[in-house]
Amino acid sequence: MTPPPTLLTLEDYRKYSERNLVKLARDYYESGAEQEETLRRNVSAFDRLLIRPRCLRSVAKIDTSVEWLPGKKVPFPVGIAPTAFQKMATKDGELSTVRGAAASKSIMICSSWSTTSIEDIGKEAKIVGAVLWFQLYVYKDRKVTEELIHRAERAGVEALVLTVDTPVLGRRMKDTYNKFSLPSHLKFANFEGNTQEKMPEGGKGESGFMQYVSSQIDPSLDWNTLQWIRTKTKLPVIVKGVMRGDDALLALSNGVDGIIVSNHGGRQMDSCIATIEALPDVLRAVDKRIPVWMDGGVRNGRDILKAVALGARGVFVGRPVLWGLATA
Ligand SMILES: Cc1cc2nc3c(=O)[nH]c(=O)nc-3n(C[C@H](O)[C@H](O)[C@H](O)COP(=O)(O)O)c2cc1C
Ligand SMILES: CCCCCCC(=O)C(=O)O
């Protein structure tokens, strides 16, 4: 195999990864919902925020470490956002990510919809010394979600992340044109042997993915669901997908341990504000009572600085990790 050219920026990785991804996977990873306004805005809103640099502040020694959750320090404020189906990017999929998380001492949030089971990811995390959080989707059959919570606990995850922006699946046009379905050699590894294991084939103007979500995922997700989850676990519960201060206050009054400001990388509701634009409202409402992170459109070190300068505890990145996986 020819060695990759010098890869310096995330854009270099994005471009280079394209050659290793089949169209179906590339479109699934890159897509936003509908006309992809929010997808673009997440990135461009960072460009409208400019830095006013300080001077004569010694940078001979710099410490970028931060307390991610009480008592849990990380060396720099970047975590790995949950992304589904990582084996479409590279053979080892989520196992490569967990190794990367350990090497960079970053926290990996595992998707409910991984192509490696949470047990196998947990085993690898112990070997390489990575910290895992687990992201939850709530199934119509609550027993499926409850079982997943307990399996994640046994696998050693340190927090649960409830994604609250996906009661239904956003319409991603490319996935609909491609009739996106998970390639037949891959599976929802957390549901092996269950009816939730396979995605139907696409057809009738719908992706197989859309059919799977409408048949399995509970669209009645609300604050009661969060309370129900809290009765099932003692782990910290973080909500991902809050975009407003009033919802952040509701999250606080429902006892959450942290908030990730997110619009799902522009993949759910189009015509939304960018996450970096939503961040100040959420931070004001929370007023430092719990940690607030953000994700969406982070594409360089200055973007991280901007989010942290506004008051975020740190950022999570989604697509850039997939580009890295597909480049390896
Ligand atoms: C291909 C792909 C799959 C994703 N899968 C999940 C998922 O399983 N669970 C989840 O909560 N978010 C998922 N997300 C959303 C990410 O966690 C994150 O919010 C988003 O990617 C951040 O935007 P960025 O890609 O610009 O960094 C996914 C995003 C992408 C691009
Ligand atoms: C209930 C919606 C599930 C979406 C799962 C994967 C994902 O988050 C994404 O493709 O985006």
Characterise the protein shown here.
The protein has helices spanning 10-18, 23-30, 37-48, 94-104, 118-128, 142-154, 173-177, 208-216, 223-232, 245-253, 275-286, 301-310, 319-327, and strands at residues 66-69, 72-74, 78-80, 107-110, 131-136, 160-163, 237-242, 258-261, 292-295, 314-317. Strands 3-10-9-8-7-6-5-4 form an eight-stranded parallel sheet. It has a two-stranded antiparallel ribbon with strand order 1-2. The protein contains 13 helices and ten strands. The chain has a single domain (11-43, 71-326), classed as Alpha-Beta Barrel (TIM Barrel). The chain starts with 9 loop residues before the first helix and ends with a helix. 39% of the residues lie in helices and 13% in strands. With 328 residues, the chain is an alpha/beta fold. It is globular and about 60 Å long. The structure holds flavin mononucleotide and the ligand CCCCCCC(=O)C(=O)O. The ligand CCCCCCC(=O)C(=O)O binds at residues 84, 113, 137, 166, 169, 213, 217, 264, 267.
